[in-house]
Amino acid sequence: MAITKLIADSITSGAIASTPSFEAYLSSDQSVSIDTDTKVQANTEIFDTDNCYDNSTNYRFTPTVAGKYFVYCNVTGQSSAQSSLNITKSIIYKNGSVYKTQIIQFAYNYGRRASVNVNAIIDFNGSSDYVELFGNVKSNGGVAVNFEGNSTFDKSTYFGAYRIIE
Questions:
Q1: Torsion from C-alpha of 68, 156, 35, 93, nearest 10 degrees
Q2: What's the pTM?
């Protein structure tokens, strides 16, 4: 019974709370330059427990509690013409540098849209460390590209994080 009480007290005291945490998505399509790493402007918050995500200026998460965080995101790249999408990348940046990347490439049979997610467990110092979502979309023949927002499919480009360990 003492162990059960200890676990219950830890949970209710916030000793293993998953905060700060947030999730945001891109509310409408974002036009981007072809084959250029571009910051995703995930401007619509689903939640932001500690007001650590900037959804209007820098589009970055700066947690105020040190620890390890699970960071997750998805970029949906889209071309304006059928059979022209060549590459879509999701890129997590930490403190202004690439931290982790995931890519899908159509070598011969080009597509129209592709969703690519990337996840990482990242250490944050609780004061100055921050993380941002970037994407990259490349088309064949110079066809216009964008990050797909909420207008076509429900929240197809999104970004989130939560604390998992102190």
A1: -10
A2: 0.87
